[in-house]
Structure of DJ-1/PfpI family protein:
Amino acid sequence: MRLRIALRAILGLALLSAAGFGIWIASLPPASADLTPPQVPQAETDALLAALEPPKRARPLVAIIGINDATETTDYLLPYGILKRADVAEVVSLATAPGPVRLFPALTVQPDATIAAFDAAHPQGADYVIVPAMSRDNDPAVIAWLRSQAGKGAVIIGICAGAKVVAAAGLLNGKRAVTHWYYLDEMRKIDPTISHVPDRRMVADGGVVTTTGITASMPMMLTLVEAIAGRARAEAVARELGIARWDARHASGAFALTRPFAATVLANRLAFWNHEELGIALAPGMDEISLALAADAWSRTYRSKVTTYAASGMVGTRSGIRLIPDRQDADWPRDRRVPTFSDGKPADVLDRTLDAITARYGASTADAVAMQLEYPR
């Protein structure tokens, strides 16, 4: 009897909570319009490329910084994979402390070095520092290191919500910037002097470059390749990746906290009995760009959690990222495996993954994933 009463009480509280959420969801705007991004003047594109010219070395040194406990998956891995593939710079992945970097929402990697080891090897600093989104915007080690690198003349590139970390370091004071649509207000709270630029995926101002949401790392890195090695080299890398264009065009109005997005997230979270653990097999030499896009997308459905597995320990990717599997298993239930589509070009993986998510969970869930990734489908 007591158990039955307790269950009824819990159910009643859940229904009241859901009703409250329902009122909140009803107050949100409907789906955003399918806006066409405005053209970017050539002079603005030229200025962006000029701002990204190598500040020190003919062959630049690029450092990608992360905190060990929570750094965004795609923000950390795509810059590494694209720049390594382009072979126009020396690229190192860093962490604030020894040990692995736990990426979110999926994957774990062993970085190349700590920031202390990097400073000892390169006292003159990096040419470029790439700052992914992190679980903490104000990590003391990251803030101090970014200020030090900026003081040594490095160009600081904040990817997605990494712009908040750059802002927390005081490097966006009085400057123009962008960030992930969901975190724009947070960035403004960190530094109210920041001037947001709508309808741009990338913005440069005073030695700092920022981007919009997660998938902006792809056009950002191709723009960096173009600034370092020229248009022809960037076009060759883009063809290999399967990317048709990488300019700064962006329809900001298409990304917002809408009624369909919030309703889908709430419904998927409440349907806890339908949640599942999906497996991605790690294999030596696999493409880290494709892996990151697939793992990131499947981990944002609010229906699934991605677990990586491999027959042995650490697995090296095509570009030298060292992956640490969540489980050392030789196999995984076939109906709960998800592919990374290694048979195609990396840029196509996200579309193919969203199609697979649609087939498994429905179009609204795929749309919610694309919204989180700020991906212009």
Notes: Confidence is low (pLDDT under 50) at residues 1-16. Residues 9 and 94 are 49 Å apart (CA to CA).
